[in-house]
């Protein structure tokens, strides 16, 4: 069973990402070590898509470098 969007957001916030807002169901997260923001779409209770899970893992890995 895939994680929920709220779980991805919690992982990002735990790693130091900051929600800079967005339009509608989109949220833009920034990190001081990364140049580009990461956009997560969907309501908090929605199942996360595979591409969202990969993007969050990649962003967290890049922020640790």
General description of the model:
This protein has 65 residues and is an alpha+beta fold. The chain is 37% helix and 17% strand. A 3-stranded antiparallel beta sheet has the order 1-2-3. The mean pLDDT is 96.
What is the secondary structure topology, with strand pairs?
Layout (H helix, E strand, L loop, with lengths): L4 H10 L3 E2 L6 E5 L7 E4 L8 H14 L2
Strand content: 15-25%
Estimated radius of gyration: 11 Å
Q: Strand order of the main beta sheet, please?
A: 1-2-3
What general form does the structure show?
globular
Helix content: 25-40%
Oligomer: single chain
Number of strands: 3
| Span between termini | 30 Å
* Largest sheet geometry: 3 strands, antiparallel
What is the N-to-C order of secondary-structure elements (H for helix, E for strand)? HEEEH
Helical segment tally? 2
Mean pLDDT: 96
